[in-house]
Design brief:
Structural class: alpha/beta
CATH superfamily: Ribonuclease H-like superfamily/Ribonuclease H
Number of strands: 5
Number of helices: 11
Number of domains: 1
CATH topology: Nucleotidyltransferase, domain 5
CATH class: Alpha Beta
Largest sheet: 5 strands, mixed
Oligomer: single chain
Helix content: 40-55%
Shape: elongated
CATH architecture: 2-Layer Sandwich
Length: 234
């Protein structure tokens, strides 16, 4: 399984109003492991960034003046995305900008080049409803180190996204065992009759019973004597 974690920086928020991509960063994973392949380009957007966007990414017109136009890197970008699952945080934003850039060159939209597009923001909202789910918020919640992130950068954010995604989906695969051939090696599942096993029952000792009583007392105090668990036991 080939996955590409992708992020862009742009001159503003509205591709339909002429804002452009000025940086793209992609990191390739194969079977949930980094392959070592990356794609990173700074791009001359042929227009200034909105002041709010500039405060986010800090990439100036002077820095971008000698960088290639998107037309010069479009083939590389399309080849890197080809056939991969793209994982993007707030995918409609980045895809909208990439599609606008491809359309200017008569190239097919991103969804026709990639195998599929996964929006990690939607995944995060399902896992953490009602909570902040920005990339920074997820890094903090999932203990991904982003202390080096002072400004947004496409390649840096793609790398952080990969770490966040792996932690959000750690029940779907292993970071230690390559699961590509697991089902082929494991063979058919075998049912095991557990009825013949006698499981030992370990009684709590006095220290554990006292600790439990203190915990229950704290719960009673916290809910002012209305703990539902007492009704269930009565």
């Amino acid at each position: 399984m080939r996955q590409v974690f992708l992020d862009t920086e742009t001159t503003g928020l509205y591709a339909a109003q002429g804002d452009r991509v000025l940086e793209i960063g992609c990191i390739e994973f194969v079977n949930r492991r980094p392959s070592g392949r990356q794609l990173h380009h700074y791009i001359n957007p042929e227009r200034p960034s909105h002041p709010d966007a500039l405060r986010v990414h800090g990439i100036t017109e002077n820095f971008l003046a000698d960088k290639p136009l998107f037309a010069a890197v479009a083939t590389d970008v399309a080849a890197f995305l080809d056939g991969a699952e793209l994982i993007i945080h707030n995918a409609p934003f980045d895809i909208g900008f990439l599609d606008a850039e491809f359309a200017r060159l008569g190239l097919p939209p991103t969804a026709r080049q990639a195998a599929r597009i996964t929006d990690s923001l939607l995944m995060a909202r399902e896992q953490f409803p009602g909570k902040a789910n920005s990339l920074d918020a997820l890094c903090k919640r999932l203990e991904v180190d982003n202390t080096h992130r002072e400004l947004h950068g496409a390649l840096m954010d793609a790398d952080l996204l990969a770490e966040v995604y792996l932690r959000m989906t750690r029940g779907q695969g292993s970071l230690v065992i390559d699961s590509a051939d697991t089902t082929q090696r494991a063979g058919p599942a075998v049912a095991v009759d557990l009825s013949r096993f006698q499981l030992p029952v370990l009684a709590a000792n006095d220290e554990e019973l006292n600790a439990h009583a203190r915990l229950m007392a704290d719960l009673d105090k916290g809910c002012k004597g209305k703990a539902l668990w007492r009704d269930a036991l009565s």
